[in-house]
Amino acid sequence: MSGAMFSRRQVVTAALAAAVSGAVFAQSTGAPSVGSSAYPSQRRSPQGAVWNHDEVALLLIDYQPEMFANIRSETGPELIELNTRFLIRVAKALDIPVVLSTVGVEMGVNEPTRESIAAELPGAVVIDRSSMNSWEDKPFVDAVRATGRKRLVFGALYTEICLAFPVVDALKEGYEVTIVADAVGGMSQTAHATAIDRMTHAGAIPNTALALSTEFFRDWKSAEAEKMRPLIVWYLGEVAKLGTRR
Questions:
Q1: What residue numbers bound the domain in which 127 lies?
Q2: Residue 226 · residue 26 · CB < 8 Å
């Protein structure tokens, strides 16, 4: 077993233990239902550096079959798909606005959003573009601004193009940005890693899908935790099914 594989399994095991301990704690203390005054909504961190669920928007860009087919970076297509679906479920559970965009569909160049991901957002308005940089597409930027959120969670394929370009532009415009590193992929590991470096140097905050989901509630006694526990258990179960396929 490689060191990288051992490390990934350790992370999953630790995360599962944390999720189960949180669930057991809630059950043993008779957790109130969501919305109960006994368990208030998660407040923002005093320093404001840790992100809260009520101040973010989720932007998903170009999760289309053609892009998935050419991923050659560290996180494989199956895990990227799962992590993206998980992020959508988190967003829906916590009332986080989602902006979904594709490229080249109306032009007849590319197919729409991958079916499994689109199924998580039934009835969603999809903003189709011709520009590789979604921040140069007025309908997309208008949709982002309409959310009223200044902290943006970005996911896109590919990391080096349709993620990096709008991220650096959004940062220049004064938005705060988190990039979900295990929900994105590039056409090579070098391209992916170089793009992550470019974005972090520009001020983007790297994160991962599971870590970000826990950042949004943080306290097992928050009202949001009641919604998140079953999602985390579902997610970890799906990760286990993938095994070494990533």
A1: 44-218
A2: yes
